[in-house]
Write a structure and sequence with these properties.
Elements (H helix, E strand, L loop, with lengths): L2 E2 H8 L3 H9 L7 E2 L5 E3 L1 H15 L4 H10 L3 H34 L19 H8 L1 H13 L2 H23 L7 H15 L14 H13 L1 H4 L5 H18 L1
Antiparallel strand pairs: 1-3, 2-3
Helix pairs in contact: 3-4, 3-5, 6-7, 8-9, 8-12, 9-12, 10-12
C-alpha cells in the first residue's frame, strides 16, 4: 500500500513542497514515482517521515537530521530513542503548564504571586558547572543574580529573544547563507548584543564580550552537542562558529 504526496502532506500536516525538498536533498525519497509524475510513499517512507518530523520538533536542522537517521540501525530502536526525548520534553512542558496555571490562578484569585513557583520547567541553572569551570564562579553568580532579579515579563521576553535568535541561525544555515556575508554577520551582531546584555559575561559590559570569550563560546557550540542542538546540530553550530569568527576578526 502506498499514498500520494498530497495524501501524505495532508496526513502529516506539512506541504507537498516540503516533501519534494526532502527528496531533493536526499532526506526522504518516495517509494516510487507514478506514470503521472506524482511521488508515492510506502510504510517505510512514512516511518522515516515520522522520525524526520519528530527531530524537527526537537529543534534539529535538516543536515543534523540526516546524520541522525544515517546512524540509526532500525526503526523501532530509533523510535524508542525519539520516545525518550519526547517524554523528557513532555515532562518539562507539563511542569511549565502547571507553573503558568498556578500563576493564572493566583492572578484571578487576587493572591500573592509566589516567585519560587513561577518558573518550574524553566531551568536556567543546567549549565552552572560548565560556566563556573570555564569562566569562574563570579561570572555565574552575576548572571544568576541578574536572572533572578528579572520580572516574569522580562524573563519571558529574554527567553523569546534567545529562541528567536536560535531559530534565525538555523534558518540561515539551512538556506545556505554565507557565514561571512551580510545576513550572517547581522546575526553575529545580534548574538554579540545578546551576550553583552547578560551580566557576568567575561569582558562584558558596555563594550560587550571579549574577543577571547566570543571565539571560545563559538568553539564550544561545536564541541558540546548540547549547545549545538540550539543551532540545529553540529553543522549548524559550525555555521554559527564560522560567522562569529568572521565577526570577531572584523570587529573585536
Amino acid at each position: 500500500m502506498d499514498w500520494s504526496i498530497q495524501e501524505i502532506a495532508k496526513l502529516a500536516g506539512t506541504t507537498s513542497r516540503t516533501l519534494r525538498h526532502y527528496d531533493d536533498i536526499g532526506l526522504l525519497a518516495p517509494a516510487r514515482i507514478g506514470a503521472n509524475g506524482y511521488r508515492y510513499y510506502d510504510e517505510p517512507a512514512l516511518l522515516r517521515l515520522q522520525r524526520i518530523l519528530l527531530l524537527r520538533e526537537l529543534g534539529l536542522g535538516l543536515p543534523a537530521i540526516a546524520d541522525v537517521l544515517a546512524q540509526e540501525e532500525s526503526a523501532p530502536h530509533a523510535l524508542r530513542t525519539h520516545l525518550g526525548w519526547l517524554q523528557q520534553e513532555r515532562d518539562r512542558l507539563a511542569r511549565q503548564i502547571a507553573s503558568v496555571e498556578r500563576t493564572i490562578g493566583a492572578l484571578e484569585g487576587g493572591e500573592r504571586l509566589m516567585a519560587e513557583n513561577m518558573f518550574d520547567g524553566f531551568d536556567h541553572t543546567q549549565y552552572k558547572e560548565e560556566v563556573e569551570e570555564r569562566w569562574g564562579k563570579e561570572a555565574y553568580a552575576k548572571s544568576d543574580a541578574w536572572w533572578r532579579s528579572l520580572t516574569a515579563e522580562d524573563k519571558a521576553a529574554w527567553q523569546q529573544r534567545a529562541t528567536q535568535l536560535g531559530a534565525d541561525w538555523i534558518s540561515a544555515h539551512e538556506r545556505g547563507v554565507d557565514p561571512a556575508g551580510e545576513e550572517a554577520q547581522a546575526l553575529a551582531q545580534r548574538h554579540f548584543d545578546w551576550l553583552r546584555d547578560i551580566p557576568g559575561t567575561p569582558g562584558g559590559g558596555a563594550g560587550g564580550p571579549s574577543r577571547e570569550y566570543f571565539l571560545g563560546l563559538a568553539e564550544m557550540y561545536v564541541a558540546d552537542e548540547r549547545f549545538g542542538a540550539n543551532y540545529g546540530g553540529r553543522e549548524g553550530a559550525e555555521f554559527v562558529r564560522d560567522a562569529m569568527t568572521a565577526y570577531a576578526e572584523r570587529n573585536l
